Amino acid sequence: MATYIINLAILIGINAILAVTLNFILGYAGIFSLAHAIFFGIGAYTAAVAAMKFGADFAAATAAGMLVSGVISLALALPALRVRGEYFVAASLGLQMLALTVFSEWKSVTGGIGGLIGIPPPRLFGFDVSDPVLFLALTLACLGVILIAIRALVRSSFGRSLKAIRDDETAASALGKNVALLKTLAVMVSSSFAAVAGSLFAFFLSFINVESFVLEVSVQVIAMVIIGGTGTLLGPVIGAAIVLLLPALLTYLPYLPPTEIGSIQQMIYGLAMVLLMIFRPSGLWGYGSSQDRKRAAP
Amino acid sequence: MLKSRIAAAIAGALLWVGGAMAQETIRIGANLPMSGPNAELGEIFSRAASIAVNHINADKMLSKKLELVIEDSQATPQGGVVAMNKLVSVAKVPYVLSAYTAVSKAIAPIGDRAKVVSINGGAVGPDLAELGDYFWNVIPLVNFEAEVLIPFVVKEKGLKNIVLIFVDDPLGEAVQKVLRAEVPKAGGTPAGELQVQRSTQQFASIAAKVRELKPDAVYIASFGTQENQIIKQLRDNGITQQLMSYSAMSTPSIATLPEAKGGWYTVQSADFTASALGQRVAKEYKELSGKDANAYVANYYNAVMVFGILAQQLEKAGKPITGANLLEQRRASPTFELVGGKMTFQANGTVAAPVQIREVDGTGAGKLVK
Predict the structure, then answer these.
(1) Which of A6, A90, B94, B227 is deepest in the core (most CB within 10 A)?
(2) B98 against B293, higher pLDDT
(3) Least CA distance to B101: which residue of chain A?
(4) Does position A297 have pLDDT exceeding 70, yes or no?
(5) Is residue B9 part of a domain?
(6) Range name among A47-56, B260-269, B284-293, B358-367 with the lowest pLDDT average
(7) Residue A98 in this model has a pLDDT that exceeds 70
(8) Average pLDDT for residues B170-198, to the nearest whole number?
(9) Is the pLDDT of residue A261 over 70?
């Protein structure tokens, strides 16, 4: 039982990193991306290749993933400079489709549809961290560092500028903010941190293929952020926990036939989203009303 | 009054615990897609497995009652890993039924570490033969199927020029490799290879290329809706040559497709009428689902029966039923008499099983050709 809970906690941690990093651009900068799973995938593939072909340990493989993801994020940042709102959603969707095709077709690197099998057990500074407890500690440490980094960034002038862009891009620009640069940096930071989740995922599963980085994954991460609360630090973590725990808990209902779990789960998701939008439009961890938000604002 | 209530409660609790202990069971797991677009297949697999569990219990093959614990893989690697961890750590099963290539690849390392056997009865990708000692396949992989069909088509039917339409994934590439080797060996000529992307659904240009190549027969190596669309659009675009494929053609949506009529395909021998066991399975499956049993029913029934036979042998030898002992026992006695005939496990965990060649006749079950 303990191993199951630990493994579930590892996946919650990995998804929480994804949700927190998406929230950085979605909640604080107002950039609505449908391509977050791609940076998750770039991190996973880069780390896997670094470990399999060059014998890199977790730290080196993750650093490589962050670097590659940060550079490729410019492909997403570029349309973000020119379009906003629903137009950016369409642009990010295009990137999601394009990158997914590259994942499927660049067989010498990604293994194509078949994926990469036999990713070696993770090592960190010479120590084997493949034991589930150690790997959970590693995942939580990564999540903790990313949360601290994002908290610091959000509270800095950079974060305040992002929020200004989110609330009114034209006004922020009129006040002398370099909107293009700020958006580019925000997307780069978010994508680099998302690659950490990818690296953890690759080492955890020992196998990755394109099916783990599809559009549905991007949408699921958005759901985590919205359920938890956009623009909050811990909301996405709570959202990730709920989205992953709900199906796991439903399987414990003894009278529920396994064939019905999927449809019941979807109904609960749908109902929860509707109820959230009615009663907690800012998510579970978000502010209850616009008055609360104003009161809490610095 | 209070004391008597407490005594009654304690007695009740003891009875409950005693009852639970008396009902101790042997558990095996099933990591199958029970939700989402693939739930239909998960339902077929789990029903077939349940029939085998009922048979093992009814025939008292094991000292305790066998129980099947089903978890939903959602047909995704992450979902499969969550389900596998639960089966291994919570239900503590020694044996897990698996389906879908990506799920199988994701759960294989967990089974390997925990020494828990995973057995696939649905996916046919050739890379499933390389997932370690604890990953077994009870379904012949696609390369084995293609090796059976080509000599029949080229030598017996005299269709020498073969065009291959294959999906760009390990399955398609495996068939490509087999055809490159087997077609010339049988005396035929590979007339062309046309690759399609996994997401492609429009095949008019592929049909045009087939027309240019003027083959005697076309081998289609795809699956699901795409396989269906390729067949339909080839016929719609005037391709009249013989079509052929592997077991994907036996899925109900293709087996009843008018455009697929006359197509030849290979499938694991699942002649339910050939033995009393097969008739028993087919009858009960029909009663349970209202549908005719197909090869998948045989595979998942067989997967559970393999466990039942191995576990019975272990109990007779006084050994505990663990994944490691199941593996050792399978190596010691690799041949099983199951639905469809005799099945022998190879050293790498794949099976050599009888393969039939059938023709799509529009009824769903198809006509036996060889």
Answers:
(1) B94
(2) B98
(3) A114
(4) no
(5) no
(6) B358-367
(7) yes
(8) 89
(9) no
Average pLDDT over all residues of chain B: 86
Whole-structure pTM value: 0.78
Q: Looking at the complex, does the CB of residue A104 fall below 8 Å from at least one CB of chain B? A: yes
A 10 A CB-CB count for A186 gives 26
**CATH number of the domain that B106 lies in?**
3.40.50.2300
B38 and B131 share a domain? yes
The verdict on B151 and B256 lying in the same domain is yes
Residue A255 falls inside a structural domain = no
The domain tally of chain B equals: 2
Asked if residue B260 and residue B203 are part of one domain, the reply reads yes
The predicted pLDDT at position B13 comes to: 45
Give the least confident one: A55-69, B185-199, B208-222.
Answer: B185-199
Is the residue at B186 inside a domain? yes
Q: How far is B113 from chain A (nearest CA, A)?
A: 11
Contact of B185 with chain A, judged by CB distance below 8 Å, is answered with no
Residue B348's Cβ-count burial label (10 Å; 0-12, 13-18, 19+) is middle
SS3 B158: coil
3-state secondary structure chain A: CHHHHHHHHHHHHHHHHHHHHHHHHHCCCCCCCCCHHHHHHHHHHHHHHHHHHHCCCHHHHHHHHHHHHHHHCHHHHHHHHHCCCHHHHHHHHHHHHHHHHHHHHCHHHHCHHHCEECCCCCEECCEECCCHHHHHHHHHHHHHHHHHHHHHHHHCHHHHHHHHHHHCHHHHHHCCCCHHHHHHHHHHHHHHHHHHHHHHHHHHHCEECHHHHCHHHHHHHHHHHHHHCCCCCCHHHHHHHHHHHHHHHHCCCCCCCHHHHHHHHHHHHHHHHHHHHHHCCCCCCCCCCHHHHHHHCC
Q: Are residues B159 and B262 in the same domain?
A: yes
pLDDT > 70? residue B16: no
Structural domain including B93 reads: 20-139+273-353
| Contact criterion met (CB < 8 Å) for A117 and B127 | yes
Q: Which of B38, B47, B72, B98 to mutate to test the interface with A (most CBs of A within 10 A)?
A: B72
Does residue B231 share a domain with residue B364? yes
In a domain, A223, yes or no: no
Partners of A241 on chain B (C-beta within 8 Å) are: none
Range of the domain at A111: 2-214
**Other CB atoms closer than 10 Å to residue B44's CB: what's the count?**
23
Number of domains chain A contains: 1
pLDDT tier, B225 (very low <50, low <70, confident <90, very high otherwise): confident
Tell me: do B150 and B223 sit in the same domain.
yes
pLDDT at A259: 59
Encode pLDDT of A17-46 as tens digits.
Answer: 999 999 999 988 888 889 999 999 999 999
- Asked if B116 and B134 touch (Cβ cutoff 8 Å), the reply is yes
B129 touches chain A (CB under 8 A): no
What is the C-alpha to C-alpha distance for residues B66 and B208, in angstroms, rounded to an integer? 55
Quick one: how far is CA B180 from the chain centroid? 26
In this structure, are B329 and B362 located in the same domain?
Answer: no
